[in-house]
Amino acid sequence: MTAVAKVKTLKIDGRDFSAREDESILDVARQNGIFIPRLCELEGLSTVGACRLCLVEVKGSNRLMASCVTRVEEGMEVVTTSERLQRYRKGIVELLFTERNHVCSVCVSNGHCELQTMAQKLDITHIHFPYRYPKAAVDASHDRFIIDQNRCILCTRCVRVCDEIEGAHTWDLMGRGIDCQVITDLNQPWGSSETCTSCGKCVQVCPTGALFEKGRSVAEMEKRRDFLPYLQLMRGEHQ
Amino acid sequence: MTPEELEQIANSEREAQAGISQTVNVCVAAGCLSCQSQAVKDALDKEVARRGSGTRCKVKGVGCMGLCAEGPLVSTSDGTLYKAVAAADATALLDGLENGPVKRLLCPTDVPFFQRQQKIVLENSGVIDPERIEEYIAASGYRALIRALTEMTPVEVIAEVVKSGLRGRGGAGYPTGLKWSTVAKAVGMQKYVICNADEGDPGAFMDRSVLESDPHRVLEGMLIGAYAVGASEGYIYVRAEYPLAIKRLKTAIRQAEKLGLLGTNICGTQFGFRIELRLGAGAFVCGEETALIASIEGSRGMPRPRPPYPAIEGLLGQPTLINNVETFANIPPIVRNGGEWYAGIGTEKSKGTKVFALAGRVQNTGLVEVPMGITLREMVFEIGGGIPEGRQFKAVQTGGPSGGCLPAECLDMPVDYESLARAGSIMGSGGMIVMDDSSCMVDVAKYFMDFCMTESCGKCIPCRVGTYQMHRLLDTITKLEATPQDVVLLEELCDLVKNTSLCGLGQSAPNPVLSTLRYFADEYKGHIERNQCVAGVCGKEAQP
Questions:
Q1: Contacts of A83 in chain B (CB under 8 A)
Q2: pLDDT tens, A123-136?
Q3: Which of A1, A168, B283, B437 is surrounded by the most beta carbons within 10 Å?
């Protein structure tokens, strides 16, 4: 079935664009080279609007909208960068740094980390909220991979890729609020998981050094995401 | 079930009631049950049986009578209300039916607490037996449904609701008629009606009382809603912490099904509707509509961004009408008496009545229903009877963890959606907690922040980490260890969390802090600059 999608026109940062009605503000921005910060969104996975970094101002709305989940509308006027938005984005990334133990100098993803890059892009030089320094666990029970909860930012990309792409649903969440964490199976050691296919997709989509391959030392873990657009393309053609 | 059959049930029930010259109503809602009203009822039953007066005198379990502070409450058919009744008083009470009221147990009803109330949602509470559908029918129950089904089109039903000016009683105050017409116009294979009974604000018990005292009213409201929007399936999402409400709802659903008021071809029409219960597992965030829907679907109860709103894409992606218990409970009288009648009550923008759970430092704690627009002063000092032990009024908290604390300056403000929002609080679901000078407002703000922090689902960063950081700052202030810089940080976090959080929980979590900073800045100052808590609550030693 080919659905007929209508085309809408909208303004982003003062420029005019056209978009299919089923596209999000972020989709349009990405196609046209406008950068909107984000950490939970990854092309090829469902969107959840959780990291709140992609918030944008939409004229006529007093609320900020998450651009990854907000569909385009005719005549919409979007502002992706403002003093206020940048202040909020900085605040949110700073909160992430205080939440767990992010020590770049000893991290496998140093230099290849989306959180680190985001902090640099947002000119974050200091964290002005107190750090929590929680005691977080490291699970190295899997043959090839390790999960280090100290570096997890709860973007849930691993949960989504495992469920939506691999179809295994090994990953999920437990706990509420600040105690929330990703788990394998029903919070059993990853190595003992009966659902995990060891495909490693979760490791590749993880934005930080929370999920990494064994045997990698500091700054050696580079993530490969190319399988996602490829799978998306193939599945799209198949349907 | 035809209109004639309904009338027949109502008439035979009324005849049966007329044959009994004396009734003794014992409150068997959760408040009075917790102070042994069941034992009172059992004792009365036993005594009536012993006297063999069962044909003239009937002992009946009824719903909440409102003045929970004085329970167990018992009322008799001659209009007498007794308070703090014990099982041992059974003989005296029954003697009183013949020889005049028992003076030592009398509860005066000519006081503002009763006189200032106007009961629409609670019209049957404390009057009918919530476990008998016949009594509800005799009290004009299900008449509105029959009228809607047989005399009105769905469009006409919605028009009445629009005319009534009813707004969502769950807290946000969205116009109910507008929501109904949106769902009615939305396109979908299947539409759903959901009743949100996941009441979670600390100190709030309006929905519980309605469900325990008059469950059929909620079913009728849902049925009318389903007919209006074209839904055939409904869910009541009720928190598992309300076992009695669940039991009475189950009974009510079974009775309605038996009489053909739920099921297929209701009232001989094409309209069919069934209702299922879903029990919440204790997460506050599941009161948020998208999280509630996720929970019904069997997923982890976490909210998702809106739009799309549930009215367009709700349960299983289908158009879904989701209203709160009290909103549905308002529907039968609106359809019965017309929208104009309802719009004649209340203020210009807030119509009708609102049920409040009056709690905290007032003489008369309990459940009250008042017309919108009544002032806070009337609520606290007339209906509430003022502050006990000769202490000073300090603040009234409305809207639970999403609301704010209003000081004495605000006492003459009318209670309506707009006024409360302007003052930095919200109407909320109807919790109203009164505080006196023994409460420290920083400590109160910390209490609510602790609640929000614990109940945050953890999905979005500002709410998950922001509430933690705010709680930590408030904790430092209550330990008298804070610096002026901490308040700057606190204000910055309030702004961040309020404007960037995903759902209502996070967006409103800073309200208790913002309202106390606005009205009680001096107390914050005292903690920081003078190391002093005027209420004497805070300090290093006081902390656990």
A1: none
A2: 999 999 999 999 99
A3: B283
pTM of the model as a whole: 0.94
Write down the CATH superfamily of domain B140-343: NADH-ubiquinone oxidoreductase 51kDa subunit (3.40.50.11540)
- Angle among Cα B257, B258, B263 to the nearest 5 degrees reads 30
Q: Which CATH architecture has domain A87-231?
A: 2-Layer Sandwich (3.30)
Across residues A144-154, what is the average pLDDT? 98
The one-letter amino acid code at B24 reads: V
Q: Which residues contact B70 (CB under 8 A, 6 or more apart)?
A: B83, B84, B107, B364
The Cα–Cα gap between B417 and B429 comes to 11
Tokens of B80: 């007498």
Whether residues B456 and A95 touch (CB distance < 8 A) is answered with: no
SS3 label, residue B512: helix
Q: CA distances (Å), B223 to each of A239, B44, B245, B256, in order?
A: 41, 37, 19, 11
Which residue of A21, A40, A52 to mutate against B (max B Cβ within 10 Å)? A52
Is residue B300 within 8 A of residue B145, CB to CB? The reply is no
Residue B83 burial by CB count (10 A; 0-12/13-18/19+): exposed, middle or buried?
Answer: middle
Residues on chain A touching B455 (C-beta within 8 angstroms) = 176-177
Q: What is the CATH number of domain A9-81?
A: 3.10.20.740
The Cα A85–Cα B499 span in angstroms is: 10
ipTM of predicted complex: 0.95
